[in-house]
Amino acid sequence: METSYHKRKLPHIQVQNMPNFITFRTHKSIDSYVKKLTQQNKDTKIKQYEIDKYLDNSDKGAYLYGAQLKILKSILHEKEKINYHLIAYAIMPNHIHLLIEPKKDLAIIMKTLKGRSAKLLNESLNIRGSFWAREYYDKVLRDEKQVNKTIRYILNNPVKANLSDEKERVFCNTDFSRYE
Fold it and tell me: Taking the model in full, what pTM does it have?
């Protein structure tokens, strides 16, 4: 089992053949309140939950609707067989929850996903500059219970946020029977 470790502000740990739960956000969604939450001396899991809860109700950096939603879904599926096994995702208006089994280095996967999508999303919105926040949150899921709980969390996120297009925002690979 190969493990790699990358660190900026958040440590990024990848264990080969293990699912990773990843959350990344639009650059404009990171306001002073989110920055304040990230600097609190709390468990990372609790901080991420509080940030996600806040972002579910925030319109800051909320670009991911309609055509932009379709662009992002296409990009998530584009390299899924090459770079990762796609298990589930929820595309929220200003952040993404993603559950994958990486086949390559996670830092490279994220750079590719964020880079390609930023270019196309900026073009479609006729904007310039950073589209995604630099950091992302990731967690290796070590057992079936964690995976199932995370899948339920991901699929329920647009419902919990009362998004009218909730069904368009989620994906779950039916071939995850090994986690059931």
Answer: 0.84
